[in-house]
Amino acid sequence: MGRGLFITFEGTEGSGKTTQIELLRQALVPRGPVLVREPGGTELGERMREVLLFGGMDLHPEAEMYLFMAARSQLIHEVIEPSLAAGKIVIADRYHDSTLAYQGGGRGLSVHWPPPFPRPDITFLVSVPVEVGHTRQLLGSRSIFISESPTNTTDSRRLRRTGSPWWTGPTRPLTCTPL
After folding, report:
1. Would 161 be classed as within a structural domain?
2. Per the domain annotation, does 179 fall within a domain?
3. Does this model's pTM top 0.90?
4. Could you give the number of structural domains in the chain?
5. Which segments of the chain does DSSP mark as H helices, in order?
6. What is the distance between the alpha carbons of residues 14 and 18, in angstroms, rounded to a whole number?
7. Residue 165 forms beta bridges with which residues?
8. For residue 54, is it within any domain?
9. CATH of the domain at 18
């Protein structure tokens, strides 16, 4: 059996990633896709999700980045790599591009793509105007990344559009029109 297919969805908060992922999952039900989210998907990942997104701690930006990467490494080893080796389709709600954009662009850290992290076969970059995404999230999220000013999101979007060196795999933009 050949290697599976690794699909990632990236985009600012409130852009519609989860909706697009669910539509793709429904279309691929007969193929049994594996869905993962970041941070999350493993016991470590879910604990890191609580700390990173809802913990209310004042984390140093570098500590924040390494926590995301630790959770991702565990997810790769426990779920992503075994699923790809079994020939499955893996669909990720965020992946390492988010660290490059948010911690690299938004927090100003020097970030690279670790060689052991598999690169996606395709990444869908979902976008809406920053203000639309921010408003959507304020209505339903308690994540610290939402309670911040939209500046971090704006910086991250700008970096995603610049053709930065980390966008080496195939990327397809998806513009989601607000209803």
Report:
1. yes
2. no
3. no
4. 1
5. 17-27, 43-49, 61-75, 81-85, 96-99, 130-138, 144-147, 151-161
6. 9
7. none
8. yes
9. 3.40.50.300
